[in-house]
Fold this sequence. Notes:
By secondary structure, this protein is of the alpha+beta class. It has four helices and eleven strands, in the order βααβββαβββββββα. The protein has a single domain, classed as outer membrane lipoprotein receptor (LolB), chain A, CATH 2.50.20. Helix content is about 25%, strand content about 40%. Strands 1-4-3-2-11-10-9-8-7-6-5 form an eleven-stranded antiparallel β-sheet. A hairpin with a 3-residue loop joins β10 and β11. About 35% of the residues are buried.
Amino acid sequence: MKFKTFNTKCAAVTKHMLAAIVFALIISKPDVFAQADLNGTEVSTPLEPLRSEIAASQIFEDLARQNALRTASLVEYSTTRTYEVKDAKGKVHAREVGVMEYRAPDKKTFAVKSEDGSGLVRRLALNPLIASEIEASAGKQHRDSSITPANYDLVLVGEQQVGPYHCYVADAVPKRHDKYLFEGRIWIDEQDHAIVRIEGHPARRPSFWIERADFVREYQKIGGFWFPKRDQTLVHVKLYGTKILTIDHDDYVVNGEAEKQERVQAAARVF
């Protein structure tokens, strides 16, 4: 199959579509390394009282330390991304599938494998979204939206089981009314000190055109690393109704581990 290399110099977008794209970037930021295994990340049990010895400050410290360790060990990865824009009835307006590749410390590329649906939606929404992530990874148009004490206060509200993970549950309260930050709830695994799930909406309304935007992000574990598994954003746009953006992240290859395994297996077959 012939791949088309993605061009980061995209056409200008209309004002209301740009607002939707900017919000979508909140949920697709690569620097929020977190964890979960999507083989069951539903919030499956009632909220339990928080144990008295648990402190929000310690959770923040553990989260930052483990994220830094994972980031320092991440040399490269690739993943198949499927972007879809649907309406409230589930009709797909546009779809784009491609391979996102990352090389430390700051290089990302995206190669399109297939695309269908509205070319206008792909050109005005999906392509600028992908291009913005690539530019942000290289330090361009950087916005610090990471979940750190500089940006958020954590208000612990209890403990809860999310799939196989026992989590601390906290309300994330942004320290600034910034559309690049969010108000919402996070679930943090007590063993690995990382985020399992995020639900929320922008701390400030992105634009006049966006009446409301709500998102959910879930994660999966790949080797010793944790990456996004699925993003879903519901955007209520004036005059256009509710639109749903989903991003599925599949087929990860991390630090060349899949290729190494294939070489070992091939060598074993020779003998």
